[in-house]
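Here is the promised in-class demo. Please do not try to memorize the tokens; focus on the logic of going from shape to residues.
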């Protein structure tokens, strides 16, 4: 019986019927109710650009209830999670750039021998702290 059917769904989402059974049916859009505005915009978005999904995560029910209570008007849980992931990705990108700049600066300081030793810097800061405390104590008298 397997010899009587054409290959299954390909990357185009078309499913073919057994040989001689008629033309291919596109099931990828068959379930979408394009008359519902939200579905129509999702369909348009999905047809124009490829999307990917993130793995689902398990959370305690209390956390989900807390998140749902904090959602803004017209904000979905999915939208909240996506925004949170985007912010986290940006924060990590910023951290990586910060570290790269710091490492480049360290390498430049070593190459040019133009840097302040940590012990010297800490000594300067401690002297400033002592002076500031003394000035504050003198002002309170």
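The designed amino acids, position by position:
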């Amino acid at each position: 019986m397997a010899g009587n059917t054409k290959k299954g769904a390909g990357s185009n989402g078309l499913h073919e019927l057994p040989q001689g059974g008629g033309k291919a049916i596109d099931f990828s859009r068959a379930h979408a109710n394009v008359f519902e505005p939200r579905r129509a915009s999702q369909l348009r978005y999905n047809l124009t650009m490829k999307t990917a999904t993130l793995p689902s995560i398990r959370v305690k029910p209390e956390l989900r209830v807390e998140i749902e209570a904090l959602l803004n008007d017209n904000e979905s849980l999915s939208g909240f999670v996506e925004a949170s992931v985007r912010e986290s990705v940006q924060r990590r990108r910023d951290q990586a750039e910060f570290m790269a700049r710091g490492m480049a600066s360290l390498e430049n300081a070593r190459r040019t021998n133009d840097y302040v030793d940590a012990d010297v810097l800490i000594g300067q800061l401690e002297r400033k702290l002592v002076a500031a405390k003394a000035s504050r104590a003198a002002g309170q008298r």
